[in-house]
Task: structure prediction
Amino acid sequence: MPTKKVLILLPDGLGLRNFAFTSFVEMGEQRGWDVVFWNHTAFDLTALGLKEIKLSGKARAKTDLLKRAKIEVELDHFTTKFGDTVYQDYKFPAYNKGLKAKLKNQIVNSLVRSHQGEKGLQQLRKALQASERRGSFYRNCKQVLEEEKPDFVFCTNQRPVNAIAPLTAAQDLGIPTASFIFSWDNLPKATMVVQPDHYFVWSEYMKKELLSYYPQIGNEQIHITGSPQFEPHFDLSLRQSREEFFYVNGLDSARKYICFSGDDVTTSPYDHQYLDYLAGVVKLLNNKGYNLGIIFRRCPVDFTDRYQQVLGQYKDLIVPVAPKWEKTGKNWSTVFPTKEDLSIQINTILHSEMVVNLGSSMVFDFAIFKKPCLYVNYEPKNKDRVDWSVKKIYNFVHFRSMPTGEEVFWLDSKREMALKIEMALTNPAPTVEKAMRWFEKINQPPAGESSGRIWDAINGITKNE
Result:
């Protein structure tokens, strides 16, 4: 039987962790696939021993404006369809400095006004593909596909505008395509930019979401696979002993550590205040006889200096264990994960007692290791952002998937933080068990087998084509 070829489209660096740093490629090769990455990032995959074709070019400026308009119209449509204003909270103010930016905003606003509702969305979706067909990027993609003759094109992320041309070119050549839905919170945000033939989702819950938001997608086009992002947690070769991890990172072997997992500055602009108060509480608990410290894991795309004062003030308590990502440009989309960071994250979880953060999916990572999560749920002091609040964060649609609301320890005020930390230390099991049930609702179990399910789906699709 001849080897089949799949092009794994990497429109940005987000897919590296899921598909380049796991056993995904090896599994595909064992199933008879020639796996080649179609790489639109600056990351050199050949250094990992992987095959790649560099993808050059970018989406047309018009396509980007159409994408912006589609997102706005889609969020308005969701608001009307579901009778819920939460979808308006997913909108971000457009950059409006300079004549060029103002002109672009005027064009987007005009497109939004003239393309309301499902009919308008259908027109915008067609316009996105039609726009890309007129560009040199599309022609380049088509040429690569004609030369490589893949049996399947798999996109690792449904969000980037530069994924439209490669997938459209493949469809125009009769090559089956699919896209992975990257994150558990993506669908309510109207981040679906591409229109592949098939969609790979995390769970039955996400499948229902997809059908609800995009009724034009057929049931047979959706495949439940889970997400490979959790697979490294089950790879014992990535784990370090407590002694080794503590020695490498300068941790005190006599202490138990709480992980504070930082958010990006948009999600949690007052994160430094939460870390500051946590450190004060840990100091008080230590005065009561505990011996606790804090591991601070910064959000990999947070480049601010907002934590510096707290880290300096509590250097005897807080130890930064920085994520290992590579910065190749000025904005967050040019920051790439590294394979080494998988081990850093896993061992941070393994050797911490719990995690404290604001609404992060790290609740699931810690639950896999039978560790509890504490969600910060109070307003910070001196809050000067009228457009931000913790209530707004936890009202986002993806948090409505919590079965009972008891899947985390809620830090509803500063006063109860010490009590909740003591509860998490002494009796974490009931909360962790509920967190695992939430995780199994969000992500198809067993969590360590998603890559195999993706390859099974690809095999099934190509067999039927």
